[in-house]
Amino acid sequence: MTKNDCHNCEHFPPSDWGVLDANELQELGHNKVCQTYQAGDVLFHQGDECQGLYCIVDGMVGVRKSDANGNCVLLRPLVVSGGIVGFRPLCAGENHRGSAEALRDTKVCFVPASTVQNLMQNNPQLTRCFLTRLAKALGDEEEDFFETAVLSVRTRLFHILLGFKDRYGRLDEDGTLHIDLPVSRQDLAAMFGVRPESLSRTVRRIEQDGIASFSGHNVQIHDVDRLFEGLYSHNE
After folding, report:
1. How many Cβ atoms sit within 10 Å of the Cβ of residue 131?
2. Torsion sign across C-alpha atoms 124, 129, 132, 137
3. How far is CA 164 from CA 4, 29, 159, 170, in A?
4. Number of domains in the chain
5. Torsion of CA 28, 29, 30, 31, to 10 degrees
6. Residue 174: partners with Cβ closer than 8 Å, 6 or more residues away
7. How far apart are CA 143 and CA 137, in angstroms?
8. Which residues pair with 60 in a beta bridge?
9. Most CB atoms within 10 A, among 73, 139, 197, 231?
10. Are residues 135 and 75 in the same domain?
11. Alpha helices of the chain — where are they, by DSSP H?
12. Helix (H) or strand (E) holding 215
């Protein structure tokens, strides 16, 4: 474990922590601990006490939720560099409702709950930032519910692929878009609430239509324009 200066972090200026003054920033830097997790490592488990916030410096973290029968799904959204994991249970005073897993090698700065609470108590602007974060998260959940209720599996898959495009995509000279999916096919299905076999049927239809081809974690999109057009189609 190490300690890093927040001023050296590329995510610091636009982050919620940017509202802290020099003394508060010194308190944050003194108490936080930075650690690197390998892909598959767990940051915390479902039911654990929320002991603080996890700021993602580099990498990707997903939250998995399990039921009493051992069924496990990966929840949206995935948390990438610059994001924070754990602010909802910390603000609510609850235990974690899911387990956080590093989906790729990930560097994390952990800020203890006592430090966060003290900073929020002394800096109302930081509290407002976290309230805004919570409100935006609630709005995103409403959008996810809307998509699940009214959009086809095909359209939801197109939404997710385009969401991965900027971070995990590359464009060939011939116009083919390659996307390296950061999650498995099963996790991808769980992220927008369908069974893996339903996703597999949708993938086959997309391949038959000549829009894209899927091989493991790699997706080749041959016709990007048709992918965008598919966003406005609610047909299966």
Report:
1. 12
2. negative
3. 29, 32, 9, 11
4. 2
5. 50
6. none
7. 10
8. 80
9. 73
10. yes
11. 22-31, 87-92, 113-122, 124-150, 153-168, 185-191, 196-208, 224-230
12. strand 212-215
My answer on whether 122 and 192 are in the same domain is no
**Token digits for 27?**
């308190």
In a domain, 1, yes or no: no
Please write the tens of the pLDDT for every residue from 157-216. Answer: 888 888 888 888 898 888 889 999 988 888 888 887 788 899 999 999 999 988 999 998
Six token digits for residue 31: 């108490």
Q: Which candidate, 196, 232, 234, places its Cα nearest to that of 214? A: 196
Task: Give the range of the structural domain holding residue 132, as residue numbers without chain letter.
Answer: 6-147
Whether residue 28 is found in the same domain as residue 136? yes
Long-range (24+ apart) CB contacts under 8 A made by 143-148 are: 144/76, 144/192, 147/192, 148/192, 148/193
Those residues with Cβ within 8 angstroms of residue 56's Cβ, 6 or more apart along the chain or in another chain = 79, 80, 81, 82, 83, 84, 85, 106, 107, 108
User: What distance in Å separates the CA atoms of residue 161 and residue 158, rounded to the nearest whole number?
Assistant: 5
User: Do 100 and 11 fall within a single domain?
Assistant: yes
